[in-house]
Write a structure and sequence with these properties.
The complex is a heterodimer of chains A (239) and B (137). Chain A is built from 8 helices and 10 strands. Chain A has 239 residues and is α+β, with helices and mostly antiparallel strands. In chain A, a hairpin with a 4-residue loop joins strand 5 and strand 6. Chain A is elongated. Mean pLDDT of chain A is 71; it is low at 8-41 and 54-100. With 137 residues, chain B is of the alpha+beta class. Chain B has helices at 38-46, 48-54, 91-103, and strands spanning 23-30, 59-64, 71-76, 81-85, 116-117. The radius of gyration of chain B is 23 Å and the shape is elongated. The model of chain B has no long low-confidence stretch (mean pLDDT 92). The chains are: A alpha+beta (239), B alpha+beta (137). The A-B interface holds A 46-47, 124-126, 134, 136-147, 154-156, 168-170, 190, 192-198, 223, 225-227 and B 13-17, 19, 21-22, 47, 50-51, 54, 92, 95, 100, 102-105, 107, 109-112, 115-121, 123-125. Strand 3 of chain A pairs antiparallel with strand 5 of chain B. Chain A: InterPro entries: bL21-like, bL21-like_sf.
Chain lengths: 239, 137
C-alpha cells in the first residue's frame, strides 16, 4: 500500500495530480458514480502519451445529487442515506470537492442499530453493489464481468466498492434509499483480468446489390472477483 | 452404484485470498532481417525491459525465428497458450498486444449473457408458495 503510494508520488507529473493526492485512496477505489482510477494508474502505463484519467472526485453535480442531505433522500426511510464518511481520506475529499457538504455524518437509525448485528450473525450474505449505476447482486467469491473495460487497472488491483443498494442475509434485508450507508459494509473486489468475447460478424446486405458488408466487433470486459464482503457492525457503535 | 473417489475437495477461485496472474510465460520471436520485424526489434530494445521488470511473475524469453513473422506466444496456468502475430506493428502496438496477453485468463473465448457467475448456494433459498404467509385459495 505504501509502495503504491510512493510510486504514485514519484510518478506525479502535474501539480493538479499533487493536489488530488490526499483524496486518492492507494489501493482502493470507489465504485460509483465514477470509478476513480487508482493512484498508481498513471504509473502503470508504459507509453507516455496523455491518458484520459478522470478526476478523482466525482462530478460535483452527481455528488450534489447523491450526497447532499437536501437532495439525497427522495423518500424518508428508516434506513440510511449516503453521507459523508468519517474516515480521513473521505473527509479530505469532501473538503476539496465541495465545502458545502462538510456536514457531520448522519446518525444511523435505531432500526439499523438494532437489526444489523442480527443480520451479520446469519451465515450467508449477499449485496447489490452498483458500478457505474448498474446493479450486481453478488456474494463473496463471485465473479463479475463488467460490461466495459475499466481503464487504468491491471490484474491484481483491489477495488473497494462503496455504493450498494441492498445488503441481506437469509431472513433480513437492509434496503437503501437509494443507497445504503457506506460505513456499514466493506466490499472489495480483485481485478482478475480482461476477458473478451468471440468475434461477432454482422453481415449487412441491401437488396438488389451484391455487395455485403461484414461488420466486426469484439468487446473487452474487465473481470472482477468479490474477495471480501464484511458487515461493519462496529460502525453502529461508533456513530 | 460404484464407489467413486472425491473428484476435488474445493474449487479454485482466483482472487479470494491470494491472486495469481494466469499468464505464466511469454515468448517473443523476432527476425533480424525481415522488415515485418522492425517494430518488434524496437520493442525488444526499448520497451520489453521495462515491461518484463514490471511483471516478475511472468517468465520472459526472447528467441530469434529467422525468415518468419514476429510472434508473441503466451502460456497460461491452465495449460493453454495464445499466440499473436505482430507483423508490421509499431512498438507501442506490440505493447498493447503484450498487455492483452497478460490480462487474459487463458480460457477459450465464450459468449456470456449473465454478468455474475457464482458457485455459492443461494442465500435466501428457493421460494415456495406453501411456506411463509401461505397461499390463500
Amino acid at each position: 500500500m505504501s509502495r503504491t503510494l510512493l510510486r504514485s508520488v514519484l510518478e506525479l507529473r502535474s501539480p493538479v495530480m499533487r493536489l488530488l493526492l490526499p483524496s486518492i485512496r492507494p489501493t482502493a477505489t470507489t465504485a460509483a458514480p465514477a470509478v476513480t482510477v487508482p493512484a498508481a494508474a498513471a504509473a502503470r502505463f508504459f507509453n507516455q502519451t496523455a491518458q484520459h484519467i478522470e478526476p478523482s472526485q466525482p462530478d460535483p453535480s452527481i455528488v450534489a445529487n447523491s450526497k447532499s442531505p437536501l437532495a439525497s433522500s427522495p423518500s424518508p426511510s428508516s434506513l440510511q442515506q449516503t453521507q459523508p464518511q468519517p474516515s480521513e481520506t473521505q473527509q479530505q475529499q469532501q473538503q476539496q470537492s465541495q465545502p458545502l457538504a462538510n456536514t457531520p455524518p448522519k446518525p444511523i437509525s435505531e432500526s439499523v442499530r438494532a437489526l444489523l448485528p442480527v443480520l451479520a450473525a446469519q451465515p450467508g450474505r449477499y449485496i447489490t453493489v452498483h458500478i457505474h449505476g448498474h446493479p450486481y447482486l453478488v456474494t463473496e467469491g463471485d465473479s463479475v464481468r463488467l460490461p466495459f473495460k475499466m481503464p487504468g487497472v491491471v490484474p491484481g488491483d483491489i477495488l473497494r466498492l462503496t455504493r450498494a443498494s441492498i445488503l441481506g442475509s437469509r431472513d433480513f434485508t437492509l434496503k437503501g434509499a437509494p443507497y445504503i450507508d457506506e460505513r456499514l459494509f466493506e466490499c472489495r473486489a480483485v481485478v482478475t483480468g480482461t476477458e473478451s468475447e468471440p468475434l461477432r460478424i454482422k453481415i449487412k446486405k441491401k437488396r438488389r446489390c451484391r455487395r455485403t458488408k461484414h461488420v466486426k466487433s469484439k468487446h473487452r470486459y474487465t473481470m472482477l472477483r468479490i474477495s471480501e464482503l464484511r458487515i461493519r457492525t462496529e460502525a453502529v457503535n461508533e456513530a | 452404484m460404484t464407489v467413486r473417489a472425491l473428484q476435488q475437495i474445493s474449487t479454485g477461485r482466483n482472487g479470494v485470498g491470494a491472486f495469481i496472474l494466469q499468464c505464466k510465460k511469454m515468448n517473443f520471436h523476432y527476425c533480424d532481417w525481415a522488415g515485418s520485424s522492425r517494430g518488434m526489434n524496437g520493442f525488444i530494445k526499448s520497451l520489453l525491459p521495462k515491461f518484463a521488470a514490471a511483471h516478475p511473475q511472468i517468465e520472459f524469453t526472447v528467441s530469434p525465428r529467422p525468415a518468419k513473422h514476429p510472434v508473441i506466444v503466451a502460456q497460461y496456468i491452465n495449460g493453454r497458450e495464445k499466440a499473436i502475430c505482430v507483423r508490421n506493428m509499431e512498438p507501442y502496438e506490440i505493447l498493447k498486444k503484450a498487455e492483452l496477453l497478460r490480462d487474459a485468463s487463458g480460457e477459450k473465448l465464450k459468449r456470456t449473457t449473465k454478468p455474475v457467475t457464482s458457485i455459492n448456494e443461494s442465500v435466501r433459498g428457493i421460494w415456495s408458495p406453501y411456506h411463509g404467509d401461505g397461499l390463500r385459495v
